[in-house]
Fold 2-C-methyl-D-erythritol 2,4-cyclodiphosphate synthase.
Amino acid sequence: MQEHYRIGLGEDIHRLGAPRPLWLAGMEVSPSGGAIAHSDGDVVLHALIDALLGALALGDIGDHFPPSDPAYRDMASTLFLEKVLPMIHQRGYRINNCDITIRLERPKLYPFKQALREHLAKLLHVDIEQISLKAKTSEGLDAVGEGEAVFCQVAVLLARQSVPLSL
Ligand SMILES: [Zn+2]
């Protein structure tokens, strides 16, 4: 792969209601009402990982961390990210920017937005200006709107290490 840029798109949805914290972008945003999932159910990190893998046509999160593997049970998704980032860097790419949309009814994420961006920037080893994060609801429609699910979509642009950041 010699392209200057590679774009990736990822999305994830989990049902809510597990008796554990709700994790988003590696942060606990609620002590209860967590995502029902094999791992910690962090939709932001799962969608982000799919976007990163997708940008380099490396498959998806399930190919690399199969839910059938007991090793990944209740695993913190930050550990998945720590395994995926070197795959990007080893192929000569880095993150130019990523644009994230989370849809959740409760808790309202607006007060967490800046902290989530800062935390993601730290996890990805990038500046906060490279991370866009939008927190929306579903206006009472669909499973998210009824408070039964949390959804996230992530677009990411990877650039060759030799290409200057475009901001
Ligand atoms: Zn997931």
The radius of gyration is 16 Å. Residues 5-160 form a domain with the 60s Ribosomal Protein L30; Chain: A; fold (CATH 3.30.1330.50).
